[in-house]
């Protein structure tokens, strides 16, 4: 089975996979990266409410085969809040 490596970054931090894991196909490795991104996105939210989480799937030679991204964009409109009283 081929070995794939999944690296993660969010603009401020990056995590390089030096061990890799065997997957039956590139699609299976891609699906594993997709499944992991929501967990990465559960970290403490950034002050501005915006962050992009990216996963890269590499082969054993270091070639990037997939780029998967998850965008967080939280915007509040406090002026729209109705006053009760």
TrEMBL record:
A Pfam family the protein falls into: DUF6894
Start and end residues of each DUF6894 domain: 3-70
Domain of life: Bacteria
Protein name: DUF6894 domain-containing protein
Biological source species: Methylobacterium frigidaeris
